[in-house]
Prior knowledge:
It contains 1 helix and 16 strands. It is mainly β. The mean pLDDT is about 90.
Amino acid sequence: DGSIRDVLYWPELSVIEAFHKVRGGNPILFPFCARSFDQGEIYRWKGPDHVVRPMPMHGFARQGRFKTTHLHERGFTAVLQPDAEAKAIYPFAYEFTVAYRFSSLSLTCEFVLSNHDTQPIPWSAGRHFYFTVPWGEGQKRKDYAIRIPASKTYRQDAAGHLQPGPVLQSEERLDQPELIDTLHTALKHNEVVFGPVGA
């Protein structure tokens, strides 16, 4: 009857084994939020100990297990439970916590990495929201805009090096092709807003 709207897109699954390949929901990207490279070779990374190890696209958390530690009507908190493979490719003593808070028109997601050792831990966590757009009948992606308060943009080249990205406005329509695979940096604040154009 139109009283409920899906905010995050989630397709139907035929087999649970394909869960980590789904393009939907809100995958958690940890310990690294993009493609990892070593000497131009993708899916590799070199740690502070100079050992080169494998690293899946976007890390291993999206296919990992989390344990819920706090649950309430407005959200929850969960802790990553790294398996043996995750410990081998990311050999640090840490606790990675994700907290979600929901309200009627917004979603807040917070990451906390607690270092349980004395050595620094390299990490760059992220989220990969799949928001449902369009919201209404007859609408298209061009009818929606996103505001990202970034001062600089970058893109990775084929060898993983950061190159200057496209010049984008602080507000762009969602059908802007230059938004794809662009890294937004030098943020003026930590809030990204999207919705119908002019809203």
